[in-house]
Specification:
Layout: H1 9-16, E1 36-43, H2 49-65, E2 69-76, H3 81-90, E3 98-102, H4 106-111, H5 119-123, H6 133-137, E4 140-141, E5 144-145, E6 148-153, E7 155-160, H7 161-167, H8 175-188, H9 202-211, E8 217-220, E9 223-226, H10 231-242, H11 251-254, H12 259-267, E10 273-277, H13 281-286, E11 293-296, E12 309-310, E13 312-318, H14 325-335, H15 338-348, H16 355-364, H17 369-376, E14 379-380, H18 387-394, H19 396-405, H20 410-426
Parallel strand pairs: 1-2, 1-3, 12-14
Antiparallel strand pairs: 3-13, 4-5, 6-13, 7-10, 7-11, 8-9
């Protein structure tokens, strides 16, 4: 269970946050050089060495196959990515040829004409046939692929095996059972949250909506419209919000909790369950419950089903301004290829995006199997629109959950959130 290195904090931030759409004004290149320096931007890490080791292997492999090419890799801070990419989009002379970026930033960057269409590249790359379809969808805008999924992040249900054994409980098979199980635990063990469910943890809330058959928003004729007032969506929102209640996770402590804080509560021994990512493993292993927990897919509303998980993760793309576009595409095939993805998992715990690599990883490391099963059961994503950056920044979804948890009528809370979503979509 310890054959693992943690996903770095800077990378985790990319899975959970987005930035505002860049304002750009630039024109693309008129040439495609096959020699010279290939410029690459990758995100820096709190501990860069494991990542850099794998990247350097890819660089050596690529340079050996391209005698007149030098690959120049620069590591940029995640927190300043918005400014860096806006500058690169405005000034091609300062821009890289290849860049790593978060999939929640994709719509904003594509709207700024920042990244090239890679659809044709994937059609001619045999390995791409094994990319997880639902993860590949996170790299698409209007059906066109603008990045190769380098890794993904999936959440599942962590639970305390010692507490469940003590109380004679089994892992919940449905989301309704999740609520009743969490309530039983809190009643029997008032020193614990039945489940640490944060009001500001909307990436944990969204699977409840999708499992109920609802959605955050729908698209028709190119325009996005909120779907939160639909009956199915309201069912999912209400189920999640019901976890933030005195008998499970009291609003005074839990309504303001983020995803990170929710996982920290579980890792610190304060909760019997939480919804956490594969990337949270190191934090849980290092805490007092490190030897007394297990993971199962977050269930759906029907026994035996898995709730669709949010597919976070990072992509590798070719800048639209690149004057080495062919070389850039070839380098991505090396760095994001199956061999390097397997090495990135071993080095950092980054979940691969190729289904055959996922199966091999799960075979070697059974701990990751529930996440792979969740991934291969199907994932969902946020609305692919630049407006998502504004929606995220305004905390529209967390505010909706917090209002319900603190007494606002669910119909009123979802109505107000829908109005805010539609206003953002209309901007």
């Amino acid at each position: 269970m310890k054959a693992w290195r943690p996903l770095a904090a800077a990378t985790v931030a990319v899975l959970l946050t987005a930035c505002g759409p860049p304002q750009v004004d630039r024109t693309g290149p008129q040439q495609d050089k096959r020699t010279g320096t290939l410029r690459v931007w990758l995100f820096d890490e709190a501990n860069r060495e494991p990542k850099e080791t794998v990247v350097n292997k890819a660089v050596r492999q690529f340079e050996a196959a391209h005698a007149d090419v030098t690959v120049d890799v620069r590591y940029i801070p995640v927190d300043s990515r918005s400014e860096r990419f806006t500058g690169a989009f405005n000034d091609p002379s300062s821009a890289p040829d290849v860049a790593e970026f978060g999939n929640t930033d994709l719509a904003s960057y594509v709207a700024a004409d920042g990244f090239a269409d890679l659809t044709g590249m994937l059609e001619r790359w045999p390995a791409a046939d094994d990319l997880s379809p639902s993860v590949l969808d996170t790299a698409k805008i209007d059906g066109k692929v603008h990045g190769v999924p380098w890794f993904t992040g999936i959440r599942a249900l962590y639970y305390r095996t010692d507490v469940f054994t003590e109380l004679g409980l089994e892992p919940p098979r449905t989301l309704d059972e999740l609520v009743t199980t969490a309530r039983r635990i809190r009643q029997a063990r008032p020193d614990l949250y039945g489940i640490s469910a944060g009001g500001k943890y909307h990436y944990a809330m969204m699977p409840f909506v999708w499992a109920a058959g609802g959605d955050i928003a729908t698209r028709d004729n190119g325009s996005w419209t909120s779907a939160l007032t639909g009956e199915a969506a309201r069912r999912g929102v209400n189920t999640y919000a019901s976890l933030i209640s005195p008998g499970i996770c009291p609003p005074a402590q839990c309504a303001g909790m983020t995803g990170t804080e929710s996982v920290q509560a579980f890792a610190g021994g304060k909760a019997a369950m939480t919804i956490g990512g594969d990337f949270n493993r190191a934090a849980v292993d290092a805490g007092p419950v490190g030897d007394d927990y297990a993971v199962v897919p977050l269930p759906g509303y029907e026994a035996g089903s898995a709730a669709p998980a949010f597919a976070g993760g990072n992509l590798l793309g070719v800048m639209d301004s690149s004057d080495h576009s062919t070389l850039a595409r070839e380098f991505i095939k090396v760095l994001a290829g199956k061999e390097r993805q397997r090495e990135m998992y071993e080095a950092m715990g980054n979940l691969p995006t190729f289904t055959d690599v996922q199966r091999r990883v799960a075979g070697d490391d059974p701990w990751i199997e529930p996440f792979i099963r969740s991934l291969q059961s199907g994932t969902r994503f946020v609305p692919a629109t630049p407006a998502w950056s504004e929606i995220d920044a305004q905390e529209i979804l967390p505010t909706m959950v917090q209002r319900i948890a603190t007494g606002t009528d669910p119909k009123e809370a979802t109505r107000r959130a829908s109005e805010q979503l539609n206003a953002a979509f209309g901007d």
